[in-house]
Amino acid sequence: MKKKITILTGAGMSAESGINTFRDAGGLWEGHDVMEVASPEGFAKNPELVLNFYNQRRRQLQQVKPNLAHKALIELEKLFDVTIVTQNVDDLHERAGSSNIIHLHGELLKVRSTGNENRVLDWTKDLNLGDRCEQGHQLRPHIVWFGEAVPLLEQAAIATQNADILIIIGTSMQVYPAASLIDYAQGHVPIYFVDPRPSVSENHYNHLTVIAKTAVEGVPDLVRDLIESI
């Protein structure tokens, strides 16, 4: 039976593809306070601003490509049972070829009905006021905004709990509830933390290895080492 690897990825995973990270933007996204463009209150106050913000991000996404770190993770699937839990709303893991991905914070290339959260549609073009589902409700980005529940958190926690190896890439592990996932890992499980500015040290967790590199610098070597260790 293949060993299970669970991989938690954050904004640093996609930064080297050209997608701005919240951390590097001084608390601003495209010049906007995060609560203006990533909260139910912001959407209620100025839906046009919010829709335009995500339209810009959706257009940008279609101009970038998976990087070497995304591509390296595909190699693990040949020898391990891999689950990727990502905080990213882009589709770069999918485009690189990874097959089992849990999007904790939603997906930029999907929208959902404001009247029925289970009505989710694929969406690659701009989303505008007046774009409605078949029941007449305005469509909104399929994004988990601040203050909203994270529907797939339990599924992500189970994947982390069942992991034989845990890899964390490009995330500060400071934003909850996603940051709590590391605590679901069993005590004997080796944890690899790849981030140029790691927020934890090897004193924090048993069997933790910190790789203070960017995703593109650190992930391909880690993947090679894990494959060679079999």
Note the main attributes of this structure.
11 strands; single chain; three-stranded antiparallel sheet; Rossmann fold; transferase; SIR2/SIRT2 'Small Domain'; alpha/beta; Ssirtuin_cat_dom; 230 residues; elongated; protein-succinyllysine desuccinylase activity; 2 domains; 8 helices
Proportion of helical residues: 25-40%
CATH superfamily of the largest domain: TPP-binding domain
Strand order of the main beta sheet, please? 5-4-1-9-10-11
Task: Please give the largest β-sheet.
Answer: 6 strands, parallel
Say what the CATH topology of the largest domain is.
Rossmann fold
Distance between the termini: 13 Å
* Anisotropy-based shape: elongated
Taken in chain order, the helices and strands follow as EHEEHHHHEHEEEEHEEEH
Query: What number of domains?
Result: 2
- As a whole number of angstroms, the C-alpha radius of gyration is 18 Å
CATH class of the largest domain: Alpha Beta
Low-confidence stretches: none
Given the structure, what is the number of helices?
8
Overall structural class, as computed from helix and strand content, comes to alpha/beta
| Number of extended strands | 11
How confident is the prediction overall: mean pLDDT? 92
- Named at the architecture level, the CATH assignment of the largest domain is 3-Layer(aba) Sandwich
User: Roughly what fraction of the amino acids lie in strands?
Assistant: 15-25%
Walk me through what this model shows:
The protein is of the alpha/beta class and 230 residues long. The chain has 2 domains: 1-19 and 66-105 and 150-230, Rossmann fold (3-Layer(aba) Sandwich); 20-63 and 109-143, SIR2/SIRT2 'Small Domain', CATH 3.30.1600.10. The chain has helices spanning 11-15, 34-37, 40-45, 47-61, 68-76, 92-96, 153-161, 215-228, and strands spanning 4-9, 28-29, 32-33, 81-86, 101-103, 106-113, 120-122, 139-143, 165-169, 191-194, 208-211. The strands form 3 sheets. It has a 6-stranded parallel β-sheet with strand order 5-4-1-9-10-11. Strands 7-6-8 form a 3-stranded antiparallel β-sheet. Strand 6 (106-113) and strand 7 form a beta hairpin. Helix 5 (68-76) packs parallel to helix 8. The mean pLDDT is 92.
